[in-house]
Design goal:
heterodimer; A: about 220 residues; mainly alpha; 9 helices; about 80% helix; about 0% strand; flat; B: about 300 residues; 11 helices
Chain lengths: ~220, ~300
């Protein structure tokens, strides 16, 4: 591991994973908020909202994330003039967060919708019989139960989001996979240690996270 | 629960009025947003005919888009076949009775599921040539990366599928004198594959989308040919990206529709494994196990 004896290389590694961490954290919030809203739209009584939700999901779920990030850069930034920050890295970071959120929200929406399907019909019927409105039925009865059923799928979505955040490197953010590429090209004699350092970091964080979500899902599951 | 009508009452006069107001307000907001995008595009001259005209010429399609699409589909097809094989082999490996097969197979699957595909491709394309001292074929760099990742996810899907087959099936097979390998290949895998069909096909959609990562290591697939190379000649990045996105959406929507048709077909004929209470085991409800998997 003499690659890491150079403090500059350590810096590249740390910066790469800091970007991944920041991208993941910000996009998780964005994707969850958007995803829940979209799921609510897709089950709502208003046809326009339902149509909007369906279109969103079908569009973004079927487009490669690379292309979406591409659109964020060339469409949102170059053409529509959206600028989040004057700092070029910060700006690319926010463009990446938007792309990741928009893409992941489609999956969150579908996960929550399938969670809603696991709630017995009697729950909603009882809520309506008590005179609850659609909003009340959804937010007080259905979503809390659906939420517990979707812990496991949401966990896999979170993990996939973290892995997908490497794609933001396409628009020039020095995240971990670009960092690894840089280190490999500069240190051709230490390719394997470099790869296992980067891949191992992902594995060391993500595999336990996966099992944590599996355990959580079991604990929180509504026993019927 | 069917979400169609259970969540809300049939609208009365007040609800109808409210829904109408919501429709109008949301509709206006949506139209306003689209109009804003339209005018911004207009200001930048993105609607100029010259930028869209290349798509009406056959040479654009024959020189850029079709070759790119063919490369994408070729990489996806080879990747699909290899990752299905990889998936079956490692699923069987993880279900083995011998710990010296089970543990390495499990470690491989868990590792490749947790490593980002892009990182994997970078390593294969930029790193491996340093070790082998031979240049790496870009096609195989993409395909091997796709295989290792999607194969590992499929391995977990197959494993969950095999575990969902009722125990009586393998007990009956052992009772008629089948060996372990026969039980696995004749009884368990066919039923597991059927039960997991929706999951398998949706993973294949993921695989098609993931070929776009090849763009980053400049594999001449759809994104590279259709957006990068095309716009280098005509200066129409956005227009090319819109057309290419439409192609991706069409290909994946077709695959998804195929998956839906397959799962309806297997369900109707009652071939999918049934749980004790006679209900068809839904793939989505199966426990895919822990770990860092995920299909997106």
């Amino acid at each position: 591991m003499d690659v890491l004896s150079d403090p500059l290389n350590v810096d590249v590694y740390v910066t790469g994973f800091l970007w991944i961490l920041k991208l993941t954290l910000a996009s998780v919030v964005g994707a969850l908020v958007l995803g829940v809203l979209l799921a609510a739209m897709r089950v709502s009584p208003v046809p326009v909202l339902r149509g909007f939700g369906t279109t969103w999901v079908n569009t973004f779920r079927n487009t490669p994330l690379t292309l979406i990030i591409f659109f964020c850069y060339f469409g949102l930034y170059s053409t529509l003039g959206f600028t989040a920050s004057d700092d070029i890295d910060q700006n690319n970071y926010w463009l990446g967060v938007i792309g990741l959120s928009v893409y992941t929200a489609a999956f969150v929406c579908e996960a929550i919708r399938s969670g809603i399907n696991t709630v017995p019909a009697g729950q909603a019927e009882a809520a309506r019989a008590m005179g609850m409105s659609f909003r009340q039925t959804l937010t007080m009865i259905i979503l809390p139960q659906a939420g517990r059923a979707v812990v496991a799928p949401l966990g896999s979505i979170l993990i996939a989001l973290c892995k997908n955040s490497t794609i933001v490197g396409t628009i020039g953010l020095a995240e971990s996979s670009s960092a690894m590429k840089e280190l490999i090209n500069a240190n051709g004699n230490a390719v394997i240690p470099i790869f296992f350092l980067f891949a191992g970091t992902f594995a060391a964080v993500l595999i336990p996270t996966g099992y944590l979500f599996g355990w959580l899902a079991n604990r929180l599951a509504v026993k019927r | 629960m069917s979400t169609d009508t259970v969540l809300y009452d049939h609208p009365g006069p007040r609800a109808k009025a409210r829904n109408l107001v919501l429709t109008i307000v949301f509709g206006i907001a949506l139209v306003a947003l689209l109009y804003w995008i339209y005018t911004r595009f207009d200001e930048k001259g993105q609607w100029a005919g010259a930028l869209w005209k290349p798509f009406t010429e056959s040479s654009t399609w024959t020189d850029y888009i079709v070759p790119g699409l063919i490369n994408t589909l070729e990489a996806a097809a080879v990747g699909m076949v290899l990752s299905l094989i990889f998936g079956v082999v490692f699923a069987v490996g993880r279900l083995s009775d011998h710990w010296w097969v089970r543990l390495p197979a499990g470690a491989v699957v868990e590792f490749f599921r947790a490593v980002p595909l892009l990182l994997m491709m970078f390593f294969i394309f930029f790193g491996v040539p340093f070790i082998t001292e031979e240049p790496m074929s870009i096609f195989w760099a993409v395909v091997i990366g796709l295989t290792l990742y999607n194969g590992s996810v499929l391995a977990e899907a197959f494993r969950a599928g095999v575990r969902s087959v009722p125990r009586g099936q393998s007990e009956a097979a052992y009772a008629v004198g089948m060996r372990k390998s026969q039980v696995m290949s004749h009884i368990l895998i066919p039923q597991a594959a059927r039960a997991m069909l929706p999951v398998i096909v949706s993973q294949l959609v993921v695989l098609v989308k993931d070929t776009a990562l090849g763009y980053i290591i400049s594999f001449s697939e759809l994104l590279q040919m259709g957006v990068n190379n095309l716009s280098a000649n005509f200066g129409n990045v956005l227009q090319a990206a819109i057309v290419v996105a439409a192609i991706y959406i069409a290909v994946n929507a077709a695959l998804t529709a195929f998956a839906g048709w397959l799962s309806r077909r297997t369900r109707r004929k009652g071939r999918a494994p049934r749980a004790a209470n006679g209900q068809v085991v839904m793939a989505g409800a199966l426990d895919m196990g822990g770990g860092a998997g995920g299909t997106l």
